[in-house]
Design brief:
By secondary structure, the protein is mostly beta strands. 13% of the residues lie in helices and 33% in strands.
Length: 153
């Protein structure tokens, strides 16, 4: 059974609709296409790397679009001149579209294509206004920013 029922949780929680929708959408997508294969790597507290195996694609055949909370990677192969005669085709030569849901404040820092691997570096940057503030009792009306740690975000 690949279907999760989040109904009991939806009834008892407020403001988590986006999370439940995301989980349900991801469960449906798992049954879909697995091309191209990819890795997601955590490189630090606030940095990540997505690596896609895109052998045979040139930089001008790849399109990376970053929107709010969504990263879309598309590949479209340019058709050959038709003069090639293949005896066996084992390398996938088809177009693809791979979508990645991003957390709030995650942005694309860089992308690179080398040795058939497309790497996309992501970084999470929480704005100063969104960082937790320390409230001192009896102090003047001024808040100080709590130093960032793994548990604060």
């Amino acid at each position: 059974m690949n279907r999760f029922d989040f109904t009991p949780y939806r009834r008892t929680t407020v403001g988590f609709d986006r999370l439940f929708d995301l989980l349900e959408r991801q469960a449906r997508a798992q049954a879909g296409d697995n091309y191209p294969p990819f890795n997601i790597e955590r490189r630090g507290d606030d940095s990540y790397r997505i690596t896609l195996a895109v052998a045979g694609f040139k930089p001008d055949e790849l399109d990376i679009t970053a929107q709010q909370n969504l990263l879309v990677v598309k590949g479209s192969k340019v058709e050959g001149d038709g003069k090639q005669q293949f005896l066996h085709v084992g390398i996938a030569n088809r177009g693809f579209e791979r979508r990645f849901e991003l957390a709030d404040f995650v942005r694309v820092e860089a992308a690179d294509l080398a040795d058939g691997l497309l790497t996309i570096d992501l970084v999470r940057e929480v704005p100063e206004a969104m960082k937790p503030k320390k409230v001192l009792i009896g102090a003047p009306r001024q808040l100080s920013v709590i130093e960032s740690d793994a548990n604060a975000a």
